[in-house]
Structure formats: C-alpha cells, structure tokens
Amino acid sequence: MQSDAKTTESLVELPKTLAETRSAIASGEVKAVDLAEGYYRRIEKKNPSLNVYLSLTRERALEQAGRVDAAAAKGDSLGPLAGIPVGIKDVLVMKGAPATAGSKILQGYEPPYDATAVSRLEAAGAVLLGKINCDEFAMGSSNENSAYGPVRNPVDPECVPGGSSGGSAAAVASNLAVATLGTDTGGSIRQPASFCGVVGVLPTYGRVSRYGLIAFASSLDRVGPFASNVKDAATLLGVIAGHDPRDATSSPAPVPDYAAEIDKPVEGLRIGVPAEYFAEGLDDEVRASIEAGIDSLRASGCTIQAISLPKTRYAIPTYYLLATAEASANLARFDGVRYGYRSASSATLAEMYRHSRDEGFGAEVKRRILLGTYALSAGYYDAYYLKAQQVRRLLAEEFLHAFAGVDAIVTPTSPIPAFKLGEKSGDPLAMYLADIYTVTASLAGICGVSVPCGTTKAGLPVGMQVLAGHMQEGTAFRVARAVEAAQGR
Ligand code: GLN
After folding, report:
1. Distances (CA, A) of 480 to 136, 233, 261, 463, 489
2. What is the pLDDT of residue 8?
3. pTM of the model
4. At 118, which CATH number?
5. Total structural domains in the chain?
6. Domain range holding 76?
7. C-alpha torsion 266→272→276→278, nearest 10
8. How many H helices and E strands in the chain?
C-alpha cells in the first residue's frame, strides 16, 4: 500500500495516541519511515528554540522504521511499539551515539552498548529518534544545569520545563516524540511531567533495569517513561519493566499488563491525602487544581481519607545527603582518562585529573561532589551519612504503614507551577526545595505517576502525583487514568 503523505503529516502535526499511531502503521496507512522523517522535519523546525535534542540517531531510526514497514507489509506480528518515535534522555546509553549526560566531561564519548531499557524499546518496535537534553548528570530541577544550554518549556518558553528530565517532558509536550524515557532520582520524571503537562512515571525501585544508565545515585536512580496520556505511559512501562540479569537490583517479579488494567473502575479504592503535602509553601492555584482532582476521584467512587506522613519534613535533607554521597562515589570514574573530555593544559598526571575534572564538571555537579565527599569522610560518616540512612528507613516505614490503610496517596507533584528561566538558578537551596513532594517516594522506593490535573490562570500545567506501594504501578495508573478521564481526556 502507498503511504499517503498527508496522513503522515497530520499524524506528526496533530499528536495521536500511541495506539492510533501504531495501528496506522500496522495497516500500512502510514509508513514508519515517513513518520520518522516527519518527526525529524518537525525537530529541525522546533529544536533550535526548544533545545530538546542533543543528538539525532537518524540512521538507526530509519533502519528500524524500515524493518517495521517490511514486517507490516508481510503481515508479520508487530511489537507493541511498532514504528513509534521515541526519544531517550541522554543519561541512557545507546551504542555508537554520543552520551553526554548533559556534561562537558563526557564530550566525545560514544558507548559501545545499549542500555537495557533502550534495547527493550527497540525490540518492541520503537524508532529511537535521538538523545535528549537534561541537567548535568541528572542533577537539577530546571534543566538549567545542562552544559548544552537549557531546554524551554513548550507551554511557555520563558519558563523552565522542570528537571532533570526536562527535555524528555518537553519533547512529549511539543510532540517531538510520541513518548520518551527519562530518569527519576528525586523527582526528575514527575516534576518535569507536571511542569510540561504530560504524564510521567516513577516505577518502583527495581522494576526497570538500570543497566546502561549513567549513575547519579544508584540506590535512588530509576528509569521511566513520559507520554501524553496515562495509557501510553502504561504501555511503555510494560515494555521496559522486568528482570535483567545485568542489574543485580532488578526485580524478578512478573510484569502485569498495565495497559489492559487501566480502565478498571476505581470505585471503592481508598485514597490517602497527606496533610503535610498541603501545607505552607503550596501555591494557591496548584492547591485548587489538586483539590478539584481529588473531588473528581470522590465522584468516581473513591473513598478519600485524610492521612499524616509527619516524617516528610526530614525528606529534603535526607535526600540531599544520600544523593550527594552516592554521586561523589559514582562520579569518581570521570577522571579525564577513560571517558570523554581531557584537559589539554596539564604537565603531570595529577594535574591532568584535576584540570579535566575542573574544566569538565559544571558548578552544581562540583557542589554535590564536595558535599557528598564531606558526608562520607571519616569524621562525619556517622553523623551524616549513617544518620541519613536511618532516617531513610523511617520514611520508608511510614509509607508502608500508610499503605496498610489506603490503596494510593495523592499529592501535588510540585508546590509551584513552572517557574521562569533564571528565577532560581542562583539559589541552590530554593531549587532543592522544589523537590519537597517528590523525594519522599524516591527514598521509600515506592512507585508513582504524575498526571496533568488542571492549569493555572496563566495556562501553566499542574500535575497530581499519585503514589502507590511497591510494585503497585497498576493501581497508580488506574487512579491517574480516573483523574485524566474526569477532565474529559
Ligand atoms: N532535582 C533533584 C536533584 O537535583 C532530583 C534529580 C533527579 O531526580 N535526577 O537531585
């Protein structure tokens, strides 16, 4: 069958769901190759202003699209993501494609292998368009820490898209990919999803392999999807989740068919609303949007229960101690010898290490290496690192206890909507506080979804965070889908 150029253009210009796009490809109405080319044309037009893609993997994408078209023409069975254009956050490696992690220190590095999440997407038929901008080593909440310039929020280009997976959220919001992968260590999927008005998923720790993820804080790092709607996000998670012998922390638990269960009625589900997430510092318009979302859950037959998570107040210091400690160890490998950037101006080996790290790392990364090294140093280990580990356990137990009484917990994803570029970049503490509602789930290892839930008067998106217990992604998706459906989507 001949592909109709107009059909392809309309698919690219008017974003469709993953299922619609896939069936247009399966029927031959649209060729995956044309669709990929259409997305590349769109990227060429829009990327200069949004700065979403750092590099394109055109050759690999077109080869894969060609394979999908050939399989469709033969009537072979197609994978769940057949022909779907997807973008990858540049902290996940793809064989032969530059991997920068948003850092100058990795300039020129081309990994010799694929991350597991990446190869699983491709095995399911996805067409990988390229590598996407992010905060340097995923450290940040605004995407302003990228060595390759900030990403702009497609909803309001004066605003940040959130971070650290700002590019992955912006790509979906501006339809520069049907879906993307991001990573979340303390909120880096959920917060940008909320800032850009898309769906972002924090899978349970261990649900998705970290193999091929450039590590920031290994006990917290998670790989997860972004999509324009809950069902697409669920489909993507189903593809990338599951045990991987290459990641010792990946869980052997079977992967349910998330997308199939998504429309199960939420009637009778018990939803916890923790007082601590609606306290001082919460923007009035965000509060109103989330309260309206909660009302819609009540109207769908959920039981809304006030709960308390008093240890929330310890979450930010605990997270920033542990994340920086792990980062200081993980980033020791970037020494100017093995990967990427090497300073040209050194007389001795020791100088080469020093200069390469000094010139290669940005200010926020250096700050974290220093903080983390301090917290791990002999005299302070017990007072800081060990104490933080103990508090982490208490936070996790508090969630366990809460989930004995409720099926899911809903909160605002972020206390504020997207802020202006430059507004917080000079104030690290203000930036850290932007994670106040997201770091708790990161520390506890539980899962969550950020789902669009209204907008402010200025038109900025608001996100609701739906948290569920370990491996309860299905419940989080159902609740998020109910919130989405109540808004007529
Ligand atoms: N904003 C948080 C930080 O800067 C979270 C980052 C992330 O989740 N990767 O650490």
Report:
1. 30, 11, 12, 10, 12
2. 73
3. 0.97
4. 3.90.1300.10
5. 1
6. 4-261
7. 40
8. 17, 11
Q: Residue 70: count other Cβ atoms within 10 Å of its Cβ.
A: 11
Dihedral sign from CA coordinates of 318, 185, 366, 414: negative
Rounded Cα–Cα distance for residues 397 and 378 (Å): 28
Question: Distance from the CA of 66 to the center of ligand 1, in angstroms?
Answer: 37
End-to-end CA distance of the chain: 32
Q: Taking a C-beta distance cutoff of 8 angstroms, is the pair 200, 166 a contact? A: no
Residue 14 phi, psi dihedral angles, 5° rounding = -110, 100
137 CA → ligand 1 middle, Å:
9
Q: How far is CA 169 from CA 49, 163, 181, 377, 425, in A?
A: 15, 9, 9, 37, 20
Q: Which atom of ligand 1 is nearest to the CA of 319?
A: 10
Say if 171 falls within a structural domain.
yes
Sign of the Cα pseudo-torsion (55, 58, 59, 60, in order): positive
Active site residue 188: yes
Average pLDDT, integer, range 283-309: 98
In a domain, 334, yes or no: no
CA distance 81 to 86: 9
pLDDT per residue as tens digits for the range 364-392: 999 999 999 999 998 899 999 999 999 99
Burial of 426 (0-12, 13-18, 19+ CB in 10 A): exposed
Residue 15 has pLDDT above 70, yes or no: no
What is d(CA 89, CA 129) in angstroms, rounded to the nearest whole number? 11
What CA–CA distance (Å, rounded) separates 299 from 302?
7
Cα–Cα separations (whole angstroms), residue 344 to 146, 360, 471: 22, 12, 48
Q: Where does the pLDDT of residue 182 fall: very low under 50, low under 70, confident under 90, or very high at 90 and above?
A: very high
Which pLDDT belongs to residue 233?
Answer: 98
DSSP 375: H
Point out the catalytic residue in the list 31, 46, 89, 424: 89
The span from the CA of 189 to the CA of 201, in Å, is: 7
User: Does the residue 30 lie in any domain?
Assistant: yes
- What are the residues facing 450 on neighbouring strands? 200, 465
Catalytic residue among 103, 141, 142, 164: 164
Of 65-69, 379-383, 416-420, the one with minimum mean pLDDT is: 379-383
Question: Would you say 91 and 137 are in contact if contact means Cβ atoms under 8 Å apart?
Answer: yes
164 catalytic? Reply is: yes
Under 8 Å between Cβ of 376 and 321:
no
Atom of ligand 1 nearest to the CA of 434: 1
Six-digit token string for 264: 């199960």
Best residue for ligand 1 mutational test, from 89, 435, 439 (most atoms within 8 Å of Cβ): 435
Tens of pLDDT, residue by residue over 428-476, are: 888 888 899 999 999 999 999 999 999 999 999 999 999 999 999 999 9
Beta strand 270-274 with 408-412 is parallel
